[in-house]
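pasting for ref
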Amino acid sequence: MPRRPASDFWERPGKVERLVFLWYQEPRVSTQQIADQLGCSKNSVVSKAHRLKLPSRGNPVDESRKIADMKRAKAIADAATTRLNNPNARPLPPGARTLPPLISEGGSAW
């Protein structure tokens, strides 16, 4: 069976330049939004970016989880510092937790 000719979508003027511009744009634009602006599929955008050797953009879900973990760790540290610096602070009852435990990388609190 003969092979189907490759699409000339990326050969159209300005498509690759627009992809690269949107890829590096801050605040970050999702690959789906890039695809919508270019008029192609998300997979097409990701594949072309890979072939152009554009840097990986990471997983936004993992990034938001890391930010949440950092905020929780800061809150715990602040609470501990406040308790240490306050000589009149009452001790917590046995078994009491002030904040939920930190979720380890890829783990679950439950």
